[in-house]
Request: fold
Amino acid sequence: MKNYLIRRLLQLIPVFIGVLFILFFILDQAPGSPASTMMDPKMTAEQKAILNERLDPAKPFYEKFFNWVVEALSGNFGYSNKYKRPVTQVIGTYIVPTFRLSVVALMISLIVGIPVGIISATRQNSLLDHTMTSLSLIGLSMPTFFFGLLLLKFFAVDLQWLPLYGAQNHMLKSKGAWVVFWDIARHLVLPGIVLGFASTASFMRYTRSSMLEVIRQDYVRTARAKGLTEKVVIYRHAFRNAVIPIITLLGFSIPGLVSGAVMTESIFGYPGLGKISVDAVNARDYPLILGINSMLSILTLVSTLVADIFYAVADPRIKYE
Reply:
C-alpha cells in the first residue's frame, strides 16, 4: 500500500500541471482582459494601454505560465483585482461557508440516497420501487435553478419558514452560540437540499443497480439458506460487495458538490466559492478564477486517490502492490 500511494502521488503531479496548463491557456485566450472592466469610457487610448500593461503585461504565454506555476507552488496565486486582496485570502474567507454547504448536501445524499436505493432494490417492481425510481429521474432531470426557485417561493416567501438568502443573520451574533448555530443551520436547509438533490438521485440509482446485481449471486442465496436474517444478508453480505460503485461515485461527488455550488449559491445569495466564482468571471478576475479552479483540481485528484484507498477497505480481495 505504501508503494502504491507513493506512485499515485507522483502520478498526480504531471496530471495537476497538465490541468493548470489547460486552465491557464483557456483564460489566456479568453476575450477581454481584467482592465476592460475597470476602464473609464473617458480614458484616452494611452491611458488604456498603460492600464492594460499594468494588469496584463505583454509577455509570451509560456513565460507567463511558468512564472505563475512557480509562484503557485510557493503558495502565491496572485492578487485579486476585484477584492483587492491576495487570492489565497479571498478563497480562505469564502471556503468555510461552501464547505459547510457541501457537507450538508453530501450528508443528505448519503443518508437518503443509499438506504432508499437498498430498499428499492430489495422490493424490485413494487409501487415503492417505481415511485423512488421516478423521483430519482426527476432529481437528475430538474434544473437546479428551477428547483431552487420553487423551494424559495414555497418555504421562504409563502410560508416564511426559512430565510430567503444569505448564510446567516449577522444581527444575531450577540445572541449567543446556540442562536447563531440555529440561524446558520436554518440558512443551510434550502441550499443544502437543492445542492444535494441531484446527488441523492445518483446515489439512489447507483445503489439500486449495484444491489440488484449482487442479491442475485449464489453467496447471497447461500447466506439465506444458512438461516441468516434478511437484515444480515442484505447489509452485511450484499451491501458490502455492492459498495464499490458507490465509492467511485462518492469520489467524484465531493468535488462535484463544491463546483456545483456555483448555481446554488447564486440563487440563494449564499456567500461562498460558487458566488465569488461568478463574480470573478464577470469581473475577469483571472488570478481568482485560476486559484479557485486549481483548488477544485486538487480536491478532485485527492478524492480519486481516497476512493482507491477505500476500495481496499471495503473489499479485502483488492490488494495494491
